[in-house]
Amino acid sequence: MKQRKLEMLLEDVAVFEKPNPMLEQYPTPAVLAAEILHFAFMEGDLRDTVYDLGCGTGILAIGARLLGAERVVGYDCDPGAIKIARKNAEKYCVDVEFVCEDVEQIQGHANTVVMNPPFGAQSKGNDRPFLLKALEVSDKIYSIHNKGSHNFIENFICPAIITEWYTTGFPIKRTFKFHKKDVEQINIEIYRIERPQHP
């Protein structure tokens, strides 16, 4: 499936009914979801089991399944988000497991994690538990972070390594009362991280 086709499909994913600013519940735009998922697909990483940590309403998890991942599990601590994610999966007729669980409690193993963790706008360091858990449960990670995060992430994930990364845009629609613009375009970085394989 081409990236543009995936983007068009994902535009119909329902978003949060009552987003929580403390959880930084900004919906991942379809254009960005398609971009990161197509990146993972072209690298051959959307196979076997894929986890989406902090899945929200399920756009990355559903997209991974549409691109052929055999098993996809989305985790989120918000029961409301999980409820919407399950309805979204039904709408797309895809088999995705959605589990309501705090990121620290997640267990098991996945070939790949795809995630859009909190940027730390409300509480600095909110992305760290997601990075730590992703390193614990998977071999490859695709993650979205604020622009300028490269040095921090490189040091934080060691001995895992960033194999590829690039800067792109993240259009955030007016979601909360404190937003001043209808759409705020922020620069973000997408990372592919690989954990060292032990013999």
Structure description:
It is a single chain. The protein has 199 residues and is α/β, with parallel strands linked by helices. α1 runs antiparallel to α2 and α2 packs across α3. It has one domain: 3-Layer(aba) Sandwich (Rossmann fold). It has a seven-stranded mixed beta sheet with strand order 3-2-1-4-5-7-6. The longest helix is centred in the middle third of the chain and has 14 residues. The chain has six helices and seven strands. Helix content is 31%, strand content 28%. It is globular, with a radius of gyration of 15 Å. β1, α3 and β2 form a beta-alpha-beta unit. The mean pLDDT is 90.
Topology:
Layout: H1 3-10, H2 30-42, E1 49-53, H3 59-66, E2 71-76, H4 79-92, E3 97-100, E4 110-115, H5 128-137, E5 138-146, H6 150-157, E6 161-173, E7 183-194
Keywords for this entry:
alpha/beta; 7-stranded mixed sheet; 199 residues; 7 strands; single chain; Rossmann fold; globular; 31% helix
Order of helices and strands: HHEHEHEEHEHEE
The CATH topology label is: Rossmann fold
Helix proportion of residues, in percent? 25-40%
Annotated CATH architecture = 3-Layer(aba) Sandwich
Taking the sheet with the most strands, its summary is: 7 strands, mixed
Share of β-strand residues: 25-35%
What is the typical, i.e. mean, pLDDT? 90
Strand order of the largest sheet: 3-2-1-4-5-7-6
Instruction: Provide the structure class.
Output: alpha/beta
Q: Compute the number of helices.
A: 6
Q: Give the end-to-end Cα distance, rounded to a whole number of Å.
A: 35 Å
The CATH homologous superfamily:
Vaccinia Virus protein VP39
Total number of distinct structural domains: 1
- Poorly predicted regions are none
